[in-house]
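Hey all, quick one. A colleague (J.T.) asked me to put the NAP job into the tracker so the inputs and the structure tokens live in one place instead of scattered across chat threads. No bug as far as I know, just bookkeeping. Sequence used:
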Amino acid sequence: MPINAALLAPTAPAQSWRIGLIGFGCVGQGLYDILQQHPASSFEVARIVVKNPDKVRPLPAAQFEFEAEALLDDNTLDVLVEVIDDADAAFRLVVAALRRGRRVVTANKAMLARHLLELVDLQRAHGGTLLYEAAVCGSIPVIRTLDAYFGTEPLRQLTGILNGSSNYVLTRMGEGGTDYGPALARAQQLGFAETDPSLDMGAFDPRSKAVLLAAHAYGLFLEPEQVLNLGIEGISATDIAFAASRGEKIKVVAGLQRLLDGRVTALVTPQLVGPESPLFGVDEEFNGVVLEADFAGEQFLRGRGAGGHPTGSAVLADLAALRQGFAYHYAKTAAPPTHATDLEIEIYLRTDEPRLIDLLDFSEVSEEADEDGYVVGYVALAHLITHRDLLREHGAFIVRTGQLRPVGEAAEATEAAEAALETAGRSW
Ligand SMILES: NC(=O)c1ccc[n+]([C@@H]2O[C@H](COP(=O)([O-])OP(=O)(O)OC[C@H]3O[C@@H](n4cnc5c(N)ncnc54)[C@H](OP(=O)(O)O)[C@@H]3O)[C@@H](O)[C@H]2O)c1
């Protein structure tokens, strides 16, 4: 078959877009550096805004300004890139930009998770566009995959390691026998963990990301507090040994799952992960996401979840998408599912405070080891959500060890749905 020469003819170079860059830290400099190394991308950083006038910068001082608001009405800028580390200021700027109908790229997951619905409404009301691939798993293109590719297909489940810092600490503890404190100090030295590590180690950061994923995977808008987040601040060698004795690893896993009755649950907890899972091999500071779609089946994405270049790369991908006229569809928000918390979850709890065991009110206990201070069994997810701060304050360590199971009316509905599937000759 002859090749159509017109298809192979070089296309005209894209017209260069002028970027207003707000923030010149890790991500801002990462993007700037990528654009310097890759001029063919045809994006030019036209104005840069930072906060501190006294800071020494890698570029001439004349290239920096200090009033982000000044960029909002500069119509010579094609797009604003907001990559600052202050969620409240970022929200004010992004709202003001969207009210003017502007195109905006942001990486600020904490801000997005808190205000996503409002930001979606603003885009619809004023015709602006907001993209944020960099906010979840850095360089891994998971938001656009969910929104554009799986916008129509139902998803059963999404599981992911969404925080590189805690994953690095767990890898050091699992492979090197390092204690939590030194492993965390090393993560901070290498720039993987924040100076205040609680956002990463307390699973607040992956909780924000889970909120964003729930919106695109299921059309479900959640408040961050609705998502259970349990971290690894209380972990010890005993817990690592418990996992190793089963041939498994402890990973902090975000789990979004559609239940048989169609409702969706979302949580982020340490979890036992066995070699059969693609997440088992996601070590060090890497991130990974496993998607299970009804018809496509299982897919696995793995990559760098943070750092200047990987995150800058995701921002660049958003810029290119904007230039092609792309906007998120949020297709599944047209018929959103209900959020489910009336479930039980199998956990391993280690604590030296017996009252915490009473408080969680285990409905079933399968294992107890008094000498190591742990118990394994089922507890209500709602109890964990209610008591998570108390558990954290008392240094308790919890690992999810098994599946979620519905209780009460939901259990009956699940049984009925299973029977219907069996009658139809299908399996879940
Ligand atoms: N680092 C990562 O790997 C990564 C990955 C994914 C997402 N993110 C997200 O990306 C965003 C930026 O992170 P980062 O690591 O690049 O932060 P960073 O290194 O701390 O840099 C923050 C930058 O924002 C500037 N800034 C702060 N408040 C400002 C304001 N009101 N107006 C103008 N500039 C302001 C700072 O100015 P000065 O230079 O004057 O201090 C600095 O240049 C955050 O939302 C973060 O959660 C980061």
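Adding what we noticed when we looked at it: The mean pLDDT is 94. Residues 12-131 form a domain with the Rossmann fold fold (CATH 3.40.50.720).
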